[in-house]
Amino acid sequence: MRHVIHILKKEFTGYFVSPVAYIVISIFLLVTGWFFFTPFFLYNWADLRSFFALLPTIFSFVVPAITMRLFSEEFNTGSYEILLTMPVTSWDVILGKFLAAVAFVSAMLIPTLAYPITVSFLGHLDWGPVVGGYIGAVLLGASFASVGLFASSLTRNQIIAFIVGMAICFSLTLIDKTLYFLPRELLGFLECLGAGFHFNNISKGIIDSRNILYFLSISFVALYGTHLVMQEKS
Amino acid sequence: MIHVENLTKYYNDLCAVDQIDFDIHQGEIVGFLGPNGAGKTTTLRMLTGFLRPTSGSIRVKDYTIEEHSLDIKKLLGYLPEAAPLYHDMLAYDYLNYVADIRKLEKQKKKSMIRKLAHLCGLNDVMHRPIGELSKGYKQRVGLAHAMMNDPEILILDEPTSGLDPNQIVEIREIIRQIGKEKTVILSTHILNEVEATCDRILIINNGKIVADGSMETIKRSGSGEYVISVSLKNAVSESVEKELGSIDGVIGVVAVNDDQNFLNVRLSCRSSDDLRGEVYRKIKQTDWVLLELHQETRTLEKIFQELTREN
């Protein structure tokens, strides 16, 4: 467990040493800021619904960009060998890197707290959905981070890791929006697979164990997949 | 200390290491020698638990690699080829991180980092990013990394590759110092490196061990031929070749006149018996003046070429 913390610390500070972190954060804030405030003044609603509605789509791009280097860079420079010949287990490595990515996603969300604060000055804001939305955002970020981590463990090329991660995250986001094309018998099942569906439930302020379980199981499956890939490499 | 039996590694269909056995005892400095692609790195990677063997067993002390790979990793210090470190980190931060992973106490961590920085000559570069360091310094950071846990066994994969001659001498000096107390395994394809540092040599070719022993035993063993070199005065090459060639066991004689009119003779002999006495007795019967007679020791280069070409 102590190894996890050391790896987490190293990976997290690693983000801020390279310019990637700052670029990703600024793009994220720009995009969310633009899409949130443009309709905000038109509709005259004091809520964050449009911000949270966009989050799964934006995260599908941003989170894989955060996680793409976690394994690929180590494979590429060869430092993976140094890491694994120290007395750490593959789970130490996976959890350390995963939690670092989750911590980074959370850090990225902190500046967006400016939106609800601004809104609460302009009108009467219902904080319930906002709190739910942020909890959901962290869960969503965590499950996408685990998917991105899995994609990163597949290849030594960061760009491929990004594209694979983005493709998986994007499918999870879109699956409940493409239901018209799919056979009726599968609808209930496929709807439950969609990240957007579960995230919308939470961001309404309803914290249901099913939705939380969904995000946790996505994370678990992806992290276990990463574990299998690491076993395969040795 | 280390016991390896029937170790085999396949990469898909390619056999990289083919059923090798060896034992390494405490305090030895062992050199793995072999041409590129002979299986040195693969063997070392299996010893460190980075690669899983296809078959065979590795025991370090009482631990087996399948069940106790974590315990073995605690005993080992490993420097992979070309020291692939994290380029964004400062040397100091990196060593700190390694010390944390190796679970060093706070006080011990400080003194250990200071000690290693001194031993590896890192004091001037501690606060520079590793990516900006020269190859030699990277290698030294890698060495410091490998020694952070005060390992009982130190494994170094081509520790001097890509360094300039001065750096090579420095790194070798460090290795020799460490080797006084620890078991060191290093791989290389530079021959005088093992000659300069190692107690024992394992020559690997095509995934098989082709020679194992101290420098002397390896030099003595081998192809089944050795050379006696003789210098004579007052002799004619034809008669020398005829006379000495008639000795039982001599395979070939080459006699060359040098500029001072001495005759330098090289006798290739079968290694089963020592022929120096016979040669002397033969010369004594003639009126040649014997200036010099000695058995040539074979250089490691020669042995290496012979062993790795045959297969």
How would you summarize this macromolecular structure in one to three sentences?
The complex is a heterodimer of chains A (234) and B (311). With 234 residues, chain A is mostly helical.
Please explain how this structure is put together.
The complex is a heterodimer of chains A (234) and B (311). Chain A has 234 residues and is mainly α. Chain A has one domain. Chain A has twelve helices and no strands. Chain A has helices spanning 2-17, 20-43, 49-67, 69-77, 79-84, 90-109, 114-122, 127-154, 158-174, 187-193, 195-203, 209-233. The longest helix of chain A is centred in the middle third of the chain and has 28 residues, at 127-154. Chain A is globular. Chain B has 311 residues and is an alpha/beta fold. Chain B folds into two domains: 2-220, 3-Layer(aba) Sandwich (Rossmann fold), CATH 3.40.50.300; 225-310, 2-Layer Sandwich (Alpha-Beta Plaits). In chain B, the strands form three sheets. A six-stranded mixed beta sheet of chain B has the order 6-7-8-3-9-10, with helices on both faces. In chain B, strands 2-1-4-5 form a four-stranded antiparallel beta sheet, covered by helices on one side. A four-stranded antiparallel beta sheet of chain B has the order 12-13-11-14, covered by helices on one side. The longest helix of chain B has 15 residues, at 165-179. The two termini of chain B are 30 Å apart. The model of chain B has no long low-confidence stretch (mean pLDDT 84). The chains are: A mainly alpha (234), B alpha/beta (311).
